[in-house]
Amino acid sequence: ERLSILTGGLHRLAPDQIVIAEDALAAIAARRAGLRCLLTVHGYLTREALSRRGMREGSKGQRFFERLEREGYLSAQRIVTVDHRLKEHVTATSGREDIRVQPNFIDMGWAEALPQHANARETLGLGDVPVVLCPRRLTPKNGVRVGVAAMEHLPEGGPGGVGGGAETENPKTRGGQTGAAGRGRTHGGGPRV
Prior knowledge:
alpha/beta; three-stranded parallel β-sheet
């Protein structure tokens, strides 16, 4: 159903338009609408669905996702991945070799702005309490629940620091339902330059 909706919407575009897609389904819809497509691959569609427990290993659902992922890779005229492991995955899944790797760029200079290790706790106002740092966006696929569960073991008022993301609004992430209430704070996202 989603594929039909996407394809129908894409039919309204001029035939010389290029679709920049971020998932296999959009790439398939672009092909079916007769449009060229650049597919940017940021993750492993089937593996991530399995790890979220959205389907069982060896199930019909897994086989469907594998076919969908492969068809998406074959539907795009160009594919860009964010790292070499993803490029290898796309090649193994689809047989395509014509994949460009455009690594994510993260400003590594941020570390220079941090206080020296010897006085970091004092500078950051941490005292002697344990700290749980979850240096990821708060999204379900990034294992956020593990960091939240660890925060339950911090003393009351502990400054466990986590980033921002979709799960920031989840009451469990905020600590309301996990016993972690008052034991941490979110700091939002940092620049990725």
